[in-house]
Amino acid sequence: MSTLLDRLDALDRQPAATRLRQRSYDALALTSGDRVIDVGSGAGRAVAELASRGHAAVGVDPDPTMLSAARQRFPGATFVTGYAEDLPFEDQSVDGVRIDKVLHNLVDPARAMTEMHRVLRRGRRAVAVGQDWESMIIDAEDPDLTRALVLSRARSVPSPRSARALRDLFSRHGFVDIELEVFTHLLDNATALSVLAGLASTTSRPSAITGEAVDAWLADQHARASTGTLMVAVPIFMSSARRQ
């Protein structure tokens, strides 16, 4: 768990990630004291940041280990056990819903959208943030191998294209005034190399790609890191919408 938390912390500390979180909070259009839930709250950073803005923030996560870590890290924040597809809240009982880096992990993201609509009060806003797993941008000597590795990793995710579908998902589940923004996160060397190692792992790469080819590909990326020419960028979609 500590390794996962370290990786999440590294991603959260990226300047672009910090800016995007703040932008997602703004898009909720909350006022002081409003009740807001962060679905898939993970290590709890967003819940603590929303609470620091004067909101009654509640984190929802299904993982007891992650919930324990969040409570230890942010003892003044509120976290409850729950699933995106079955939120533990009454109908129209919250003023804002935020879901970040969750929908791609769901077999049926539409169920989460239905739940977000159910618990949100009329006229209030929901915000969804996610990575497009098929669109990672990597500068490499072998673009065909790079594309194959990216697509292979995307296929291991239940809903890799959920982020690009956010506008449609909101529209089909009773939301209006839908806004969509796209951000590009340029990863620093340490974070990028960790991501690239994941792409190259035997658990995600196609069997037709040899270990030797992947080793050479990774060596190229490490060489780029040592010369300051490594380039890994991730498209992130953020959509916000109002419940009718």
From TrEMBL:
GO terms for molecular function: S-adenosylmethionine-dependent methyltransferase activity. It holds the Pfam family Methyltransf_11. CDD domains: AdoMet_MTases. It comes from Luteipulveratus mongoliensis. It comes from the Bacteria. Residues 37-123 form the Methyltransferase type domain. This is Methyltransferase type 11 domain-containing protein. Coiled coil: none annotated.
